[in-house]
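Quick note —
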Amino acid sequence: MYRLHLHLVSDSTGETLEMIAKAALAQFEDADVTRHFWPMVRSRQHLDRIVPDLAANPGLVLFTLVNAETRARLEEHCRQIGLPAVPVLDAVTEALESQLGQEAHGRPGRQHLMDEAYFKRVEAIQFTIAHDDGVGWENWEQADLVLAGVSRTSKTPTSIYLANRGYKTANIPIVVESPPPEALFRLRRPLVIGLTTAPERLVQIRRNRLLSLHEDTETSYVDDGHVRDEVKYARRMFADNGWPVIDVTRRSIEETAAAAIRLLSQRGSDENPSLLGSKPI
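Predicted structure written out below.
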């Protein structure tokens, strides 16, 4: 297994840099990566304080620094130590400058300004937290998305991820013994999406959940036959109501959320949302 020290140096919160690093690292297997996170590096003094750690843990340096002097000093330090330093946004910024015919504003954290999109995201997060696990169904009509599925089909984490993208998302568990409120079947504004998964995978996830809670009792919650019936019941409900379905068996939270956003976008350009059907994607 290859080991790497990855230094992330940013003059802002570092959120963008972390996402880029995470997306790139996902392409590699069997890599043991130790991340060193250095946010809000905006002065020569601050930069000089982290140089000893760079030298003590040689590896790769990724950075997003807009101040020319700070950038130059980091690059010089890296040359002296013998570390590769990559300005991860330079190629994209240069391409945009070329196409837009103007220079980029060198202002740290400019992408995180509290604009309309920021407040929309905050509102979406508040709504989503308040409408988790079937709570607050009276307000579901205000949602952008409603995720439905049996227990442990990643409804909550997917909802939170979507909220961080600015989508008001509610979710509802589908339970054979307790049908959902009738309001679910009368929704007009939000797109209702069914989440499904392979029964055998679901049993495994539920067993792991019980183990984490130090519960080893055999119940219908992890019974193969009962779980298959649950999944069939939910799929039948999705089909009867013409709701699109996402199979989360081999999907990450990010992939499931991307599929949901794509379905919402498709509905926005489709005069008849029901034509999306209920075949899992």
